[in-house]
Automatic annotation (TrEMBL):
The lineage of its organism: Eukaryota, Metazoa, Ecdysozoa, Arthropoda, Hexapoda. Its main location: nucleus. It comes from the Eukaryota. This is RING-type E3 ubiquitin transferase. The keyword Transferase applies. GO terms for biological process: negative regulation of gene expression via chromosomal CpG island methylation; protein ubiquitination.
Amino acid sequence: MVRAAATKIDSPKKSKDTISSKKDVPTPSCSSTTSSISNEDDSEESKYFKVGDYVDVKDYTYGSWFISKLIKIKKDSCVVNKPNDPKSPVENDGLIYVAEILGCPEEPPIEVQLQEIRPHAFDILPFENLKVNDRVLMNYNVDYPQERGYWYDVLVKEKKTNRRGRNVIGDVSVGIDNVVLKNCQLMFLDDIYRIKPYQSLSERTPEDDKIMQTEPVVMRAAALYCIKCKDNSDKSCKECGCRICGGKEDEDKQLMCDECNHPYHMECLTPPLKEMPRDDWYCPSCKNDENEIVKAGEKLKASKKKTPESMSTSKRDWGKGMACVGRTKKCNIVPSNHFGPIPGVEVGTTWLFRVQVSEAGIHRPPVGGIHGRDNQGAFSIVLSGGYEDDVDNGDEFLYTGSGGRDLSGNKRTALQSCDQELTRYNRALALNCNAKIDSEKGATAVDWKKGKPVRVVRNYKLCKHSKYAPELGNRYDGIYKVIKYYPETGISGFTVWRFVLKRDDPTPAPWTTQGKKRIAKLGLKIIYPENYIPTVANQDIKSKLPGSKKKRTLQDADIEDNEQCLEEEVTDCSKKKSKILYKLEKEAEKLITADIANQKYWKDCKEFLEKGKKAFLDRVEEVFSCICCQEIVFEPITTECSHNICKGCLRRSFNANVFQCPSCRAELGKSYSMNVNMKLAKTLLFLFPGYNLDR
């Protein structure tokens, strides 16, 4: 979450744009609504608003509401209207509302449609008058729930008052698509605003008109720029001030490190600097020590910066390096807190190593069994037979929570040594159950299919206990839902939390006959890491190695079984097979045909259809990646030179006075109209549903 200071319009405090000069802090950007710039000064007539009204506008970058001033209403026949939100009290009227966000004078006006603008909420609702199922405007921080954030619509689900204080739990609507974050705990209960309903101009009284046309004196509190010092300008802080003395004075004498971007006073350095350096400058922590440079003929010098961990001489077997290897790529198609399937990843897809599962976005942690957040829910789990209490029946299984083990001494696993608690990842998995959270007795879902989805991966280690596990690697088995959860005494004698999960995926399971036919039809084979050679060493050479005549252990048997599976896999891959042709859905074909401006790119992508759906989607992701942010283009601008760039990336380029195509440097001009290619945007959203949620 970007942090910015709360401002008062008529006070001498620092405004958002003043803070931005100190550190690059994004400010609310324009919307994705496209329109050509009109030269006419006359505004169109609207049913609900007129020029000069002070309104609340939902910003497309943050997905939250900001106080703004309406400066123009225009109509553009080129606009492709955003689909109407059925929950909104009004429908888009074909007009574009241009507004300036208060407190950001240097920010260009924002353009929105009717459903993203409403009367300014100024009436504070007392906590005593707040009721369950009320929809109000409240402050919430998505990344740091305990801190100040931005203003979102909240549907109150629970209200409590006890000796510990007041408590409100509600569903927060975030983003333009109104993604709901369920069961969020709201912290700031003195700032609850009534959402003012839409009122037509004909129904306005002179008093209403005066309120709408009067500039608010006090702005609503916004997110903090610095959490540590709470934006106190009189308090020394090494996070937002000088890293040595913590002072915030003499900003003109502060140096910004070109590596870590932290400020330093010139007089605080050792030795002090008398004048501003002309070249790049690096702070003492980032600067390379010249004494550590190895000259010709010298031995390697031990660096003082190296940590004891990096100089460790441990001989522990970490799975031949693949158990703790770093990721070479990251899944950017959907955000890390995405619930449900990952676009392009089919049920039955198998990867050799866990790190590949992390790279694909199916299960992000390379080691942990549960991926989730204790205030949102669990996104995915891995079944690997690590707990003796687990029971796997395929479409339904009994899963044991995490914790209760002493993993000190760099251990990966250990015996149960204490009771488990419904906290952290266990609580995250419990939130997926469609029932009120109960940390003592557990709960059973009222309607289990309405619970949050969990992606399930089965590991080959589970095959010792379950016939549904793969013989090799890690297999994605689809979506499951939590039916119930409860505590009980496990085999070890300690309390463990048990979770019952049931499959709720339209795709047939990989172990069924239909699932096996589907896997064969799609040509899904085990996926190896890049440049990985799945071969087995010569048995004659192995027999000559030291220790080859020792008694065979269970670990050796597992290794031999895996090697045998690898040999069979290599044999299968070497066989001649027919091409697996993936056929596009009719709707996808229709959307691609409509995108005339990018036909040559789509023609190139269609050549990968014969290699399967994954190869096709990988090619689409590669071809339609923004040259600036290296992710799939969001709100794509198709230039005259046939390049696709994110609207936000192109706007940042224009703000830096670079009016050229970021890809080929073709001149675009200062007055270039940034019209979003809605046909391409719809096509990408169809192929990669949800990729725009965290953008």
